[in-house]
Design goal:
alpha/beta, 5 helices
């Protein structure tokens, strides 16, 4: 056959179609892989949220603050400090749970109030955190909950 004959153009058209088909297959497989990875990461996030809520849910906070709640007067004002890292997303969540648990008392996210609730996560309180915030322990209620008094200026 002569190279310019029409029969010679069919193999190149066929190879173009095969290349296009291979690209489409690759794109579909890549999208499926991305979707599977996304589902996997979502399941890990859900599992982490479920395991975290077991230890830091409303019920757990009510139990932790049970002894302290017995001493709270309605409409009292307290500051709040925690040993969480400032950039920890659970720090704000725990503050809101503390507010909810101690209502109708007012809890502010500051150490500038005369009485401050300190929320420690370990069995040994970090008294360095108290010193930095100029707080003196008044009463330890257990479970990492300490009521402190702000030092006079």
């Amino acid at each position: 056959m002569h190279p310019a004959s029409p029969a010679c153009t069919f193999p190149s058209v066929r190879s173009v179609k095969l290349i296009g088909l291979a690209r489409h297959k690759f794109a579909v497989i890549a999208l499926a892989a991305i979707a599977l990875c996304s589902i996997f990461w979502s399941l890990l996030d859900i599992q982490g949220a479920v395991s975290h809520s077991r230890s830091f849910g409303v019920g757990a906070f009510e139990n932790r603050f049970e002894e302290f709640r017995k001493t709270v007067q309605p409409h009292s004002v307290y500051g709040y400090v925690s040993d969480n890292a400032p950039n920890d997303p659970s720090a704000r969540l725990e503050f809101y749970l503390t507010q909810y648990t101690l209502a109708p008392a007012f809890v502010k996210f500051t150490a500038e109030e005369p009485l401050v609730i300190v929320n420690f996560h370990s069995t040994k309180p970090d008294y360095g955190l108290l010193g930095v915030n100029k707080l003196a322990p008044v009463q330890d209620f257990g479970n990492g909950v300490i009521l402190c008094r702000r030092a006079q200026r």
